[in-house]
Structure formats: structure tokens, C-alpha cells
Amino acid sequence: MMTNITFSLPAKTIRRLRRRAADTGRKKGVISELVDEAIASYLDALESSAEGQTFTALKGERPVAEGKSLQELASALRARGVDPRSVRIVSSEPLEPVGHMGLRVHAS
To answer: DSSP character for 29?
Structure first.
């Protein structure tokens, strides 16, 4: 079942959305499908992070604070007066690796 909803988006976002819809080559219902997919993806990401992943701040091996997000953990540390640089933060789920690339120049 489909339900109509009215909302406002910035003009730049609308232009990008229409361009993407035009790229599909179809005309009917493409914008609705794109918006539905984007919102469903966003909600899935929120629900999956809320369900399981937690972040824990450890001082030595002793847990000092815990949060469902890094922002929540930072607030908990701030409330306890703990400097975030003085703790080790671990995640209950493995984080995706971040690749760094750069050029190093050594003076001769």
C-alpha cells in the first residue's frame, strides 16, 4: 500500500534527485522509488546501529562509560568528568578499516 506524503527539500537536492531519476530512463514512479529506497536505507542503518553496536571507554581494563554511539559515549565521559584522551575506546563490532594515502617527501 502506498501513502502520499508532502515534504519540502532544498532545490539543490530536488535537482539531483530529478537528474538521477532521468538517468534510469523510466518515467513513472522513479522519484518515489528513489526516495523510498533512501529512507529505508537510512532507517535500516539507524536500527542496526541501535540494536547491537556499543562503544565502551576503558581505563586499563575497567569500563568507565558506555554508549550506543560515539557521541553518546562522549556525553557520558563528559558527565563523569573523564578526559576522552585518557581512555581506550573499543567497539562491540569490528569497525571498517580506513585507508589513507599520501605522498611523503624527505628533504635531501
So the answer is: S
